[in-house]
């Protein structure tokens, strides 16, 4: 994964965040998805540290955000 792999996203409920194209591709290939409530919580917590929260495959696995 490179720094260019991050894609900007805007959520009406949780605000701006970034997610890797790698994670999106892995979710699509395995027909899995992110737990919406837990991911929104993760985004909210990570906004407090300043900057834009960045969600990668590693982070999603570590935080148990992937379902399916």
Quick rundown:
By secondary structure, the protein is an alpha+beta fold.
Estimate percent helicity. Answer: 40-55%
- Spans of at least 5 consecutive residues whose pLDDT stays below 50 are none
What average pLDDT do the residues reach? 92
Q: What series of H and E elements makes up the topology? A: EEHEHEHE
Widest beta sheet: strand line-up: 1-2-4
The coarse silhouette is globular
Ends apart, CA distance between termini:
23 Å
Determine the number of helices (DSSP H or I, runs of at least 4 residues).
3
- What's the Cα radius of gyration? 11 Å
Number of domains: 1
Into which percentage range does the β-strand content fall? 25-35%
The biggest beta sheet is recorded as: 3 strands, mixed
- Strand tally is 5
Please identify the structural class as seen in this structure: alpha+beta
Structure description:
With 68 residues, the chain is an alpha+beta fold. The protein has one domain. Helix content is 41%, strand content 26%. The chain has 3 helices and 5 strands; from the N terminus they run ββαβαβαβ. The strands form 2 sheets. It has a 3-stranded mixed beta sheet. The protein has a two-stranded antiparallel sheet with strand order 3-5. The radius of gyration is 11 Å and the shape is globular. The model has no long low-confidence stretch (mean pLDDT 92).
Please give a handful of descriptors for the protein shown:
two-stranded antiparallel ribbon, 68 residues, 3-stranded mixed beta sheet, alpha+beta, 3 helices
């Amino acid at each position: 994964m490179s720094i260019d792999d991050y894609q900007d996203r805007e959520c009406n409920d949780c605000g701006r965040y970034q997610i890797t194209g790698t994670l999106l591709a892995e979710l699509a290939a395995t027909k899995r998805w992110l737990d919406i409530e837990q991911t929104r919580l993760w985004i909210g917590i990570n906004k407090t540290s300043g900057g834009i929260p960045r969600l990668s495959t590693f982070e999603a696995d570590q935080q148990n955000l992937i379902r399916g």
